[in-house]
Amino acid sequence: MARNYILIVDDDARMRDLLREHVTRMGYSVETAANGAEALSVVQRQRPDLVLLDLRMPGMNGLDVLKGIRDIDRTIPVMMVSGESDPSVIGETLKNAVFAFVPKPFDSRYLHHLVSAIVG
Which tens digits make up the pLDDT trace of 90-112? Predict the structure, then answer.
C-alpha cells in the first residue's frame, strides 16, 4: 500500500523541517517547497494527498498558491498553517475551500488530528 503523499509549503526552512519531521513520524511521504512557484510545480508533477500551506510568503502568497492549486485540481485538500491573526484574512482562506486553518506555533496533537482526518 502506498504511503500518503503530503506537500509542505513554507518560506521558513525551520518551519518546513519541523512540519516535515512531524508528518514523517506520522508515517507519510513528504515533499517540501520553499515558495509558491515551486509548490505549483510540485502539484503539477505529482498530485499530493494534502498540502500544508503557509499564508505569508514573499512573492506569491498562500492565497495565490491556493488559487493556483485549485486551478490545477480542485479536489486536493489544503490546510493553511500560518501565524496570521487577521480574522478577515483567515476568513478569506476558508472561503477559498481550505480544509482548516492551523495557527503557528502549531499544536502537534491538533495538527496530527487534522492530518489524520484528511488523509487517514
Answer: 777 777 767 888 888 888 899 99
